[in-house]
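User: My instructor asked us to take a sequence, write out its structure as tokens, and then describe one feature of it. I'm not sure where to start. Here is the sequence I was given:
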Amino acid sequence: MDDVAPSWQDFALAFELFRDPILCGIIAGAVLGYLAVHIVLRRMVFVTATLTQTAGLGVALGFYAAIFLETEVHPVVSALAASLTAAWVLSLPTDRLKLSRESVLAAMWLLAGAGAVLVGDRISQEAHDIAAILFGTAVLVRPEDLRMVVGVGALVLGAAWWWREGFIFAGFDREGARVQGLPVRLLDMGLLALITCMVAVATRALGALPVFAFSVLPGMAALMLTSRLRWAFPLAALGGAAAGGLGYMAAFFLEFPVGASQTAVAVLLVALAAPVRLVRGGQ
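Assistant: Let's start with the prediction itself. The structure tokens for your sequence are:
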């Protein structure tokens, strides 16, 4: 058994093969990292977890439809449809059911996770793809998935930047935003739609685990480093990009699963930011 660890020369020789997945991780990490600031500030962490898990179920259902129903559905389309459905359900009032929002989130997360595993068990020929979607174990990225991440990422990032002031105002002071005439409900739904679209596309390309990590951890790290939002957003985007790119390289050199390595790098960013926050105190 060859126990020699991969070298930089090995990485350079295979760079043409790894270029697309590294680029995909960097772009998805940057866009989701930017959105992570909104997600953390608005306490939408578990909403994002549910959307990510639901996107994984959507991809699995797309494979199932193609194999057993002979209906060709692009995995990104099925992921987006499932995530948008979940977002719509989460937007409904739960008062009449006497359930908290957290209870509904937990039920949907469990349903999506169990559903993806159950559907995956019935399509053994796509079992590897299902595992890659759930845990982010895929080493390579399809060219069409990279194009989707780049295209959707550019649109989502552009829209998030264009409406940034409205999103921030509606998130911090809802009553004040209403007094100023801002469509708070529409802004909330718009932000949720942007998050849903990016999560669905990125989950198909990278897997649910790293996508959830990119959607939360860079925002946490950035907000610990600075209280100024104008710096928090670019810092979070940079952190997400670093987690996507460096995480892939760590997976190559340390021979770890890609998604877990990208998640670990994102966790490391939070761990490095924590002492800075402790030193800054209440500043």
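For the description part of your assignment, you could build on this observation: The chain has one domain: 8-277. Try explaining in your own words what that tells you about the chain.
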